[in-house]
Design brief:
Radius of gyration: 17 Å
Shape: globular
Largest sheet: 8 strands, antiparallel
Number of helices: 0
Number of strands: 12
Strand content: 35-45%
Distance between the termini: 22 Å
């Protein structure tokens, strides 16, 4: 397991009978979570590359909120998760938002598997307002991640503005998308999806 921008750890004895659990930290300063204030920047310290001699199942789980009443899970799809054309899915966020609902977020994140990877985002809903005025085209190198985020409280178009958005690249990438504290009704939850 290689932490992008970090160190490599070798685990020789992982099996069904001997699973491995690794605590990766908490908050936006972990290799798994990006702070909304820095979306639209290239990250070189987010994510993991996991390789094994035999098939393995990898799952990342998170809890959120002061009472940890929100939870999400992301399961790796391995080589099957690589591609050059993806569609985004998030919650549709039908909740009535006000200016104090700043903890809701829809996002799409991409990671390059090769240097000089051109990534383009299109088919976002008309009227969406992207956090940090993030450009919709970027060139990434191996291991770099790029995140586009929409806050549903900013404008009604952001509630489902990423649903069906198109992500294309000239070289294989991995795409993760979903909603942090999102909602399809009056309740809220975390949804994460590694898509293909």
């Amino acid at each position: 397991m290689t932490e992008i921008g970090g160190t490599t750890s070798v685990y020789d004895d992982v099996s069904n009978a001997n699973p491995l659990e690794i605590f990766i930290g908490s908050g936006a300063n972990t290799p798994f979570v990006a702070n909304v204030g820095t979306t639209g920047s290239k990250y070189s310290n987010k994510g993991y590359s996991i390789q094994s001699a035999q098939p393995v199942y990898v799952s990342v789980r998170l809890t959120a909120g002061t009472t940890q009443n929100q939870a999400g899970s992301l399961v790796s799809k391995g080589l099957a998760g690589l591609g050059t054309t993806f569609r985004v899915g998030t919650f549709t966020n039908q909740k009535n938002f006000s200016s104090n609902n700043q903890d809701y977020l829809n996002f799409v994140s991409v990671m390059a598997t090769e240097n000089n990877t051109q990534v383009d985002f299109s088919d976002l809903a008309t009227g969406t307002i992207i956090e940090n005025d993030t450009p919709l085209s970027v060139i990434l190198n191996y291991g770099e991640t790029y995140v586009i985020a929409l806050n549903p409280a900013v404008t009604p178009a952001n509630r489902d503005g990423l649903v069906g958005a198109l992500v294309t690249s000239n070289k294989p990438i991995v795409v993760n998308c979903g909603s942090s504290n999102g909602s399809n009704s009056t309740a809220a939850d975390v949804i994460l999806e590694l898509i293909k």
